[in-house]
Amino acid sequence: KQEVTQIPAALSVPEGENLVLNCSFTDSAIYNLQWFRQDPGKGLTSLLLIQSSQREQTSGRLNASLDKSSGRSTLYIAASQPGDSATYLCAVKSYNQGGKLIFGQGTELSVKP
Amino acid sequence: SQTIHQWPATLVQPVGSPLSLECTVEGTSNPNLYWYRQAAGRGLQLLFYSVGIGQISSEVPQNLSASRPQDRQFILSSKKLLLSDSGFYLCAWSVQGASYYGYTFGSGTRLTVV
């Protein structure tokens, strides 16, 4: 059964700092991996989608990498801003679970001005 | 472009009352539809998914049920709410038969059972 783990659970950084969020998964049989952002009390906004055949995806200050064989992904945020404060969720579309999206518990990020 | 709508945004219901949450998708046909629940301090749990009208799969035994009366409409229901049904409910859709597509989520419904 696929399990997704995100470390750290919470992170607080000063504005301007570059940071890395980590995601690991136990079953490498995935179709893709998605990073989401969730603001308090809001729905999920998709940030980046990486297919299983890809190594990384970039959008603005965000860069996500995928190492399927080792079951790891990282989300790199450059030059963090207070507006980046949110919970970041990693999810894998698991082949062996019928294509269902399996989530990690999230990393709560606080960027202080 | 495709959009997904959920309503209501917030709901406070007494224990034992019925529940109906609605989700609709626009701009696509025959989507896969999903209901997730996010309890306080916990991750997202898949409750139900549907690959077509009238086709519902349940992931967790519980007090809730789901229905898909139309292609792009997904409803989450309960006959009698429990305190443990409180949480944040999210609807999502994905393209059917295309494993490379990601999921798109709605804005969620905050349900408080009192």
Notes on the structure:
The complex is a heterodimer of chains A (113) and B (114). In chain A, strand 9 and strand 10 (100-103) form a beta hairpin. Chain A has strands spanning 4-7, 10-14, 19-25, 30-38, 44-51, 56-59, 62-67, 72-77, 86-94, 100-103, 107-112. Chain A is globular, with a radius of gyration of 13 Å. In chain A, 36% of the residues are buried. Chain A is mainly beta and 113 residues long. Chain A contains no helices and eleven strands. Helices cover 0% and strands 60% of the residues of chain A. The mean pLDDT of chain A is 95. In chain A, the strands form two sheets. In chain A, strands 2, 4, 5, 9, 10 and 11 form a six-stranded mixed sheet that branches. Chain B has 114 residues and is an all-beta fold. Chain B has strands spanning 3-7, 10-13, 19-26, 32-38, 44-52, 55-58, 65-70, 73-78, 87-94, 104-105, 109-113. In chain B, strands 2, 4, 5, 6, 9, 10 and 11 form a seven-stranded mixed sheet that branches. A four-stranded antiparallel sheet of chain B has the order 1-3-8-7, with no helix packed on it. In chain B, strand 7 (65-70) and strand 8 (73-78) form a beta hairpin. Chain B is globular, with a radius of gyration of 14 Å. The model of chain B has no long low-confidence stretch (mean pLDDT 93). The chains are: A mainly beta (113), B mainly beta (114). Chain A binds chain B through residues 31-32, 34, 36, 41-46, 49, 51, 89, 91, 93, 95, 99-101, 103-106, and chain B through 6, 34, 42-44, 46, 49, 59, 88, 90, 92, 94, 99-100, 102-108, 110.
